UniProtKB/TrEMBL annotation, chain A:
Native organism: Thermaerobacillus caldiproteolyticus
GO molecular function, one term: ATP binding
SMART domains recorded: AAA
Keyword field: ATP-binding, Nucleotide-binding, Transport
Name the UniProt record assigns to this protein: ABC-2 type transport system ATP-binding protein
PROSITE patterns: ABC_TRANSPORTER_2
Transmembrane segments: none
Superkingdom assignment: Bacteria
Sequence ranges assigned to domain ABC transporter in this UniProt record: 25-258
InterPro entries linked to this entry: AAA+_ATPase, ABC_transporter-like_ATP-bd, ABC_transporter_ATP-binding, P-loop_NTPase
TrEMBL record, chain B:
Top-level taxon in the UniProt lineage: Bacteria
Pfam families given in the database record: ABC2_membrane_6 (PF06182)
Organism the protein comes from: Thermaerobacillus caldiproteolyticus
InterPro entries with a match to the protein in the record: ABC-2_transporter-like
Protein name (Swiss-Prot/TrEMBL): ABC-2 type transport system permease protein
Presence of keyword Membrane: yes
Chain ranges passing through the membrane: 25-49, 61-82, 118-139, 145-171, 199-221, 227-249
Keywords: Membrane, Transmembrane, Transmembrane helix
Automatic annotation (TrEMBL), chain C:
Short name of one Pfam family: ABC2_membrane_6
Keyword Iron: no
PANTHER family: SLR1174 PROTEIN (PTHR36832:SF1), SLR1174 PROTEIN-RELATED (PTHR36832)
Domain of life: Bacteria
Protein name according to UniProt: ABC-2 type transport system permease protein
InterPro entries linked to this entry: ABC-2_transporter-like (IPR010390)
Swiss-Prot/TrEMBL keywords: Membrane, Transmembrane, Transmembrane helix
Membrane-traversing stretches: 21-39, 59-76, 112-134, 140-169, 181-199, 233-251
Length: 335, 261, 263
């Protein structure tokens, strides 16, 4: 099977300018400026197979958008190899972008003042889609995304959820084999999110469309992606299945206690002395969470209950969000 | 061919959009007319006090001003991307443009087109007709072609200079006020070049060749044979400056850093 | 009074943050002065004087007009129109100060800033570039200072007026552009009023516009002598008082409407 994306030792550096203080400083800045080089993406390598759905995650400034922009041909890499759909994006940009679809959650692809279908018609022309292909493909897309009634409205009159669905349809006009989604569900309500996820699964199954998704919403990834690539400070810190990530990091349980009285962290550690338990403060007052392996659950509970007054207690699986937070806090990934 | 059909598609959308805001359109027409009137009134009032401006008569100056308005209108309608830095670089619209399979400069020109500017060209032609009637100018059939070529040449000179300036945004993220400065410099091209000193004349001919938008091509129609050489350079200068601009643009796109980094 | 002075200071500091704009501002103004300098030189060619002004006086007139513009020019009309449109005026009205007074003070802060960072350094540059002639007569400069202050007042009043009028009109942009066109043409910035045909001069006597640029520039070039200076200053003074009346009336009507509409 052909790889949709091949990236090897990809690097992007930016010059970051700083301005000097004061009037004389401003004048000096006119001639020479202070700068330092920031490596936004630091020699990353990975491949994505045709038909895969990959979640690309990382904190703000980890280098997510910069990677996406290099993969879509917007930015020219500083060094390294990048081949997407068999082409070098920034070299043969115009031919290349015809083979991809892009949705930027915070930026509209559609023309603000004209009706949605007019935007579609313009994009159809720009992507040189034949009437037959358009009809065959887009009727289905419009139907599934349920945007038929919106088509004759100007974009500025749409709600965010309505607009996002139209954006998605617009990115698919030329039925691209590869779809980049940058924060597609940002600010959307749950129902719209569900609709969009369902739709993405469908086109992935129907056309074997490869999807690369960046998001802050881990539930998007859980719903859609088999595989995640995790980025931190421009480097890949995890690349593998979501399953494995959970298995390695998510084994164990969360015990959530709500104590009757105020309690200190060192008192809790003293209580579970000798056991590999991690405590952290819960969200409510006097709530504390213990992270323990399954076999130790009874032991920890009995120690806590015998030591202090408990108002409430819960046993939970560790959520993906929790796992990712742990990874970023500790900075290491084993497995 | 593909680019032509995309062009008309954009144009159709543009007209639909504009028709939604009809009053704004009328206001723009009227205020354009007013700003052209300021210069016209200046010329008319000044010639109430003198007969000749460095050997040029009132009607010749009017003709030059009328001619200037035509390529300027073409430039204003298609190439006036003065807000490129603000709109495409700072707000990151360039990202979107670069994900579409059409040359980025072409897309931006289409998105920023302002066809209503063409009305200024009509005003210009009316002024030229008035001035040439008073000057008893005689035209040949081929002068229409020469006129079109000169207008395109002049518009390309403008386009070349302003697109080149817009590409500065690819290299420097500092906001610059060079654009408004250039608009003011370009005003120099509306008057006979020989009223300026040698230094400014040189700049207006070879560095920022705004003289090719007004005086030089007009000299041909006014029968000022001593300027014919420059007049026929108009389309050449237009092409050279436009090609330089496209070249700078392509180089700049490679340097594009994206927004919000 | 303290709060108004504070407003001037804040504006001043805001402008200081954008000071690089002013270096190019100086260049732009010099370019414009240059264009008119060459034009006027060609117009005068061998004439010693037109309408009683020599070429030196005319060049100086042009330079001073542009540099003075930097002082009196402001965008408070646009700001008011914008704040009315966005409904911010309602909030401003609860604050314990006069909204229009505050806007004027902002304009003054901007004006003083431009005077120090654009007009004065710009003037020094322009003196080197073009043959200007300045009077050494102290009283001329005192009259000029008075006159330019009145220019600022008249121009700001016209801006306030235009800004408040947008409250009652549908298309603000058209109104503001028309105002700018009239001021460009009839303030004397691009052409001294005395150059216009007699009938036009007669009409302009009944409008405040020449109080913005023509009068101060004529005073500083000593094209106005004796009684003409006093007449000019009186003209400005009368208009700066008279313009308060329509502003008051319109603002009162606007506030009334604001209360009814709820902003």
């Amino acid at each position: 099977m052909v790889n949709a994306i091949e990236v090897e030792k990809l690097r992007k550096e930016f010059k970051s300018y700083s301005s000097r203080a004061g009037l004389i400083g401003a004048f000096r800045d006119l001639f020479t400026r202070n700068y330092k080089i920031i490596r936004a993406v630091n020699d990353i390598s990975f491949t994505v197979k045709q038909g895969e759905m990959v979640g690309y995650i990382g904190e703000n400034g980890a280098g997510k958008s910069t990677t996406i922009k290099m993969l879509t041909g917007i930015l020219t890499p500083t060094s390294g190899k990048v081949i997407v759909n068999g082409m070098i994006p920034h070299k043969e940009r115009e031919a290349f972008v015809r083979t991809i679809g892009v949705v930027f959650g915070q930026r509209s692809q559609l023309w603000w003042d004209i009706a949605v279908q007019e935007s579609f018609r313009l994009l159809k022309k720009v992507y040189r889609v034949s009437d037959r292909d358009y009809k065959e493909h887009m009727e289905h897309v419009i139907d599934t995304l349920d945007i038929g009634p919106l088509l004759d409205k100007p974009v500025r009159k749409l709600s965010l959820g309505q607009r996002m669905r139209c954006e998605l349809a617009a990115a698919l006009i030329h039925n691209p084999p590869l779809l980049f989604l940058d924060e597609p569900t940002i600010g959307l309500d749950v129902l719209v999110k569900l609709k969009i996820r369902k739709f993405l699964k469908e086109i992935n199954e129907k056309y074997n469309t490869t999807i690369l998704l960046t998001t802050h919403d881990i539930s998007d990834i859980e719903a859609l992606c088999e595989r995640v690539i995790m980025l931190d400070e421009g480097k890949i810190i995890y690349d593998g299945s979501l399953q494995r990530l959970k298995a390695n990091w998510g084994e164990g349980k969360q015990l959530q206690f709500t104590f009757a009285n105020e309690i200190r962290l060192d008192a809790l550690y003293a209580l579970t002395n000798g056991l590999p338990v991690k405590w952290r403060k819960g969200e409510q007052a006097n709530a504390w969470v213990a992270h323990v392996s399954p076999s130790l659950v009874p032991e920890v509970i009995s120690r806590v209950v015998s030591g202090y007054d408990i108002q409430d207690m819960n046993i939970n699986e560790i959520s993906t969000e929790e796992i990712i937070r742990n990874i970023y806090e500790e900075g290491v990934v084993h497995g | 061919m593909f680019y032509v059909s995309v062009f008309f598609q954009y144009m159709a959308q543009y007209i639909k959009t504009k028709l939604q805001y009809r009053t704004d359109l009328i206001v723009e027409f009227v205020s354009d007319l007013m700003f052209q009137a300021v210069n016209l009134i200046f010329i008319l009032v000044v010639f109430g006090h003198t007969q000749l401006l460095h050997g040029w008569t009132r009607d010749e100056i009017l003709f030059i001003y009328g001619f200037f308005l035509v390529p300027y209108a073409v430039f204003g309608a298609f190439f006036n991307i003065w807000d490129f830095n603000e709109r495409y670089i700072v707000r990151g619209e360039m990202d979107r443009v670069l994900t579409r399979p059409v040359h980025s400069l072409f897309q931006i020109i289409l998105e920023r087109m302002e066809l209503e500017s063409l009305l200024g060209g009509v005003t210009g032609i009316i002024i030229m007709i008035y001035a040439s009637a008073r000057l008893h100018l005689v035209f040949h059939w081929y002068d229409v072609l020469v006129f079109i070529v000169f207008v395109l040449g002049g518009a390309l000179v403008y386009a070349g200079v302003f697109i080149s300036l817009a590409t500065i945004s690819f290299w420097s993220d500092a906001r610059s006020s060079i654009m408004p400065m250039m608009y003011n410099i370009s005003n120099y091209g509306r008057y006979p070049i020989d009223i300026y000193n040698r230094f400014i004349r040189y700049i207006l001919t070879w560095i920022l060749p705004f003289a090719f938008v007004g005086v030089y091509p007009s000299a041909y129609f006014l029968g000022k044979t001593e300027w014919y050489g420059y007049a026929f350079l108009t389309p050449v200068m237009g092409l050279i400056f436009f090609i330089i601009a496209v070249f700078l643009w392509n180089a700049g796109v490679k340097r594009y850093r994206g927004a919000g980094n | 009074m303290d709060k108004y002075i504070e407003m001037i200071r804040i504006r001043f500091l805001m402008m200081l943050a954008y000071r690089t704009n002013y270096y190019t501002g100086i260049l732009i103004y010099s370019i414009n002065i240059g264009a008119y300098y060459f034009l006027w030189s060609a117009i005068y060619s061998d004439k010693p004087s037109i309408q009683g002004m020599s070429i030196e006086q005319m060049t100086t007139y042009v330079a001073v007009s542009w540099m003075a513009r930097a002082f009196y020019f402001n965008n408070i009309d646009r700001e008011i129109a914008m704040e009315i449109k966005e409904g911010k005026v309602a909030v401003e009205l609860i604050r314990p100060y006069s909204y229009l007074g505050m806007k004027t003070m902002q304009g003054l802060g901007e004006g003083i800033f431009r005077l120090l960072f654009l007009s004065l350094p710009g003037m020094i540059i322009v003196i080197f570039l073009f043959p200007l002639h300045f009077s050494t007569n102290v009283s001329t400069w005192i009259y000029f200072a008075l006159s330019i202050t009145l220019s600022f007042i008249i121009n700001s009043e016209l801006n306030l007026l235009a800004g408040v009028v947008t409250f009652f009109t549908l298309n603000n942009e058209g109104l503001l552009r028309a105002k700018r066109f009239i001021i460009d043409l009839f303030s004397g910035l691009i052409l001294p009023i005395s150059f216009y045909p007699a009938w036009a001069q007669e009409v302009m006597k009944y409008f405040p516009f020449q109080g913005i640029s023509y009068i101060p520039s004529m005073i500083v070039t000593e094209s106005f002598q004796g009684q003409a200076v006093i007449d000019g200053l009186l003209f400005q003074l009368v208009w700066s008082v008279m313009l308060l009346i329509p502003i008051r009336l319109l603002w009162r009507a606007a506030k009334k409407q604001l209360v009814i509409q709820g902003g």
